[in-house]
Design goal:
about 220 residues, mainly alpha, 2 domains, Endonuclease III, domain 1
């Protein structure tokens, strides 16, 4: 495995220089910023990720104000109490995307979030307290607790809300292979944890958050 400086130099060369590369890098939210966000915000963003999966993001995003109305501003306690009859009526509501499995997932995930809120006080506290050097374990925890959050859905959700994480996109996996940091696609838990160790080493080397390391990797290959 090469040092990350070589990866960053190649990404900068491909993007037209260090300033151009820097402009493309995300910034994670701090622990204080995460804990200040409402539980409704987190549930809304989680459900947005679920409905975006397999659909054009622009189509889903355009409907999201309607979703906010139908799903009571995504306040977890209120959403978890929605009746079966109310959920069924949503299949005829043009304000939402009428996908029964995903509509049911909203209520199920609201209930799961309420359990964590009861334990931690706020969902943002639960996220903020989770160390970045074990982020793949958070992927597994969220995928286990919440509906339709498997695969890359959890890493994308975490990126959306500003929790620091890398994402194993095709480009990132290609770059990990190219720079001999990993061979093949990391699918099993053990493989993802080994990739986590690689990112931890690069984070220690560079002082960069995981999200920036991930983005730079993706930009270092075709």
């Amino acid at each position: 495995m090469v040092g990350f400086a070589a990866v960053e130099r190649e990404a900068a060369r491909r993007q037209g220089g260090t300033e151009a590369l820097a402009a493309l890098l995300p910034e994670p939210r701090s622990a204080a910023e995460l804990t200040a966000l409402t539980d409704g915000y987190f549930l809304s963003q989680m459900c947005l990720r679920i409905f975006r999966a397999g659909l054009k993001h622009a189509v889903v995003d355009a409907k999201w104000p309607g979703f906010e109305e139908v799903f009571l501003a995504f306040e977890p306690a209120r959403v978890s109490a929605i009746s079966d009859e109310s959920l069924e009526r949503m299949l005829n509501d043009k304000r939402v995307i009428r996908h029964w499995g995903k509509i049911k997932a909203v209520r199920e995930n609201a209930a799961a979030m309420c359990e964590l809120v009861e334990r931690h006080g706020r969902f943002g506290v639960y996220l903020a307290d989770w160390p970045a050097e074990r982020i793949v374990d958070l992927w597994d925890e969220i995928a286990k607790r919440f509906t339709q959050m498997g695969g890359n859905s959890t890493p994308y959700f975490l990126r959306m809300i500003g929790k620091d994480t890398f994402i194993l996109t095709d480009a990132v996996v290609q770059a990990l292979n190219h720079w001999r940091a990993h061979e093949g696609t990391p699918k099993a838990k053990g493989e993802r944890r080994r990739v986590q160790q690689v990112f931890n080493a690069w984070a220690s080397e560079t002082g960069r958050p995981l999200c920036q390391l991930s983005r730079i990797l993706a930009l270092s290959v075709d």
